Amino acid sequence: MPTNNYSGEERFVNPYTDFGFKKLFGTDMNKELLISFLNALFGDEQHVCDLTYLNNEHLGSYGGERRAIFDVYCENDKGEKFIVEMQNVYQQFFKDRSVFYSTFPIREQAKRGDWDFELTAVYTVGILNFVFDEDRYSPDCYHHKVMLMDVERKSIFYDKLTFIYLEMPKFMKGEHELESMFDKWMFVIKNLSRLLERPAALQERVFEHMFQAAEIARFSPQELSLYEDSVKAYRDINNAIVTARKEGMEKGMEEGMEKGKQMEKIEIAKKLLGSGLPVDQVVQITGLSAEAIEKL
Fold it and tell me: Cross-referenced InterPro entries, in alphabetical order (predicted)?
């Protein structure tokens, strides 16, 4: 039964918000959702039976060293570590940041005394609300799996450090095109806040659990307040990005138009000079400086 008087348009939480993402994937109550998502993501390569949530804030080894705060940080029953993050905004050094974050669960495995340096696997999963510049024009390439590779042999050199990136804007499948559990989770994450009811294609029990957990009307007053703050922060970020892009496009168009006008003036000046017109008259007609015309 509804527990609040939420007046927003959405029925279900937006997983792109900080609160929404952690509500669905970062709590023991909804651990089943994260397990299902990870198993869908890894397929036959990895099967997660159980997860334990770990402290998501990590301090450097020495005072003043930079810290890392993960959205979700957990380990499976084999001790393998999983960092799962929602990244809404493109950062210039996003890949560097991602690699830097992976060093924390690696370093924390160090043991005092005799140790043979054996490590358990570390997986970093980035759910991205943007696309990488280098494959912007490859619409079907949205699931990236990155590992250390021997370049000459074209084979995996080290299989215990894996980075997976999902470019959500590129996922364009509709409800009737969903085939695998991976497709279904991608669809849910991308479209959840726009749905009015649970789609018929999502009949698995885990999605029944997910839609119940995501229903905003079920939030407590405290959860609702936190969610509304999170939505505001998310919208502020998006508005800032849209404004910056618009200003950049307008500036680019203005610069392009100015450049075009300048080129047109230069071509006219060349023709006038070729017809024997004096430089001072060409200056008056084109508006170009005498110095610029003399260089033609």
Answer: RpnA
